[in-house]
Design goal:
about 140 residues; hydrolase; 4 helices; alpha/beta; Cytidine Deaminase, domain 2; 7 strands; globular
Length: about 140
Amino acid sequence: MEKTNDPGLISGTFYITNHVRQKLISHCKRELPYEACGLLSGGNGIAETIWPMENVNRSSFSFSMDLDQIRHVFELIDRRNEDFIGIYHSHPTDSAYPSEGDITLNNYPEVGHLIISFANSTPELKCFQLTGKKVFPIQLKFVN
């Protein structure tokens, strides 16, 4: 999968449909107490499709996706004529901010990284662009 054509990150905004946001929250809640993870795709810079992935680490503090599962999802994204525009994962007990491991192990600096925290009673969802060791907050906009 090549670079995304996501105009949202260029403008400092990540667009996601309300439907995908709800599915993302549900998936991450189901996986507690472990971190959940997945991919996001869409067109025109809007995350319209969610691809829940298996966290092969089965850990509350880290996540990793199976490379074969990633390749398969990239093929499905291509078949849908969508762009790969985001990665999401949860922090069951930590804040919605990239951990050292999230930053160091990042393989996709060109996409948005959404993190949902369950540290408080209300889940908190935030987005970042991770470039090298730098973390840039990205505004989230929810659309219908």
